[in-house]
């Protein structure tokens, strides 16, 4: 009998997607700062390709550096929070679908030969 993958840890997926989205938030902050955009966008919600269910907070740029850094922190946290929510929802949906179809054969999953420490 083959081993089957029947779920993923949704918390791990949510954290991984949160880190990626947080880095995207930092990138957008740098981009808006370099382009002198009049406002920055801080989305809260689920963001995925071809679908965006977010509440967008528009942050007006200021001439004061401290305010711009605060807006950048808010923007980064907003992207990271949205990433966590998006990752959690999609991992939970993946788990539901994968259980309905009975799992994925483990023979389709390629694992690298990693040496484990002796402890």
Global Rg:
19 Å
What is the CA–CA distance across the termini?
A: 31 Å
Return the domain count.
1
Adjacency order of strands in the biggest sheet: 1-4
Taking all residues together, what is the mean pLDDT?
Answer: 84
Q: Could you tell me the strand content as a percent range? A: 15-25%
Number of strands: 4
Q: Give the SSE order as H and E letters.
A: EHEEHE
Q: Give the low-confidence spans.
A: none
Profile the largest sheet: 2 strands, antiparallel
Percent in helix: 40-55%
Q: Work out the helix count.
A: 2
- Structural class computed from helices and strand pairing: alpha+beta
Shape: elongated
Walk me through the structure.
It is a single chain. This protein has 119 residues and is an alpha+beta fold. It has one domain. 51% of the residues lie in helices and 20% in strands. The protein contains two helices and four strands. The strands form two sheets. A two-stranded antiparallel sheet has the order 1-4. Strands 2-3 form a two-stranded antiparallel ribbon. Strand 2 and strand 3 form a beta hairpin. Helix 1 runs antiparallel to helix 2. The model has no long low-confidence stretch (mean pLDDT 84).
Descriptive terms for the model:
single chain, 119 residues, alpha+beta, two-stranded antiparallel ribbon, two-stranded antiparallel sheet, 4 strands, 51% helix
Short note summarizing the structure:
The protein has 119 residues and is an alpha+beta fold.
Question: Secondary-structure blueprint of this entry?
Answer:
Layout: E1 4-5, H1 10-34, E2 39-48, E3 51-60, H2 65-100, E4 104-105
Antiparallel strand pairs: 1-4, 2-3
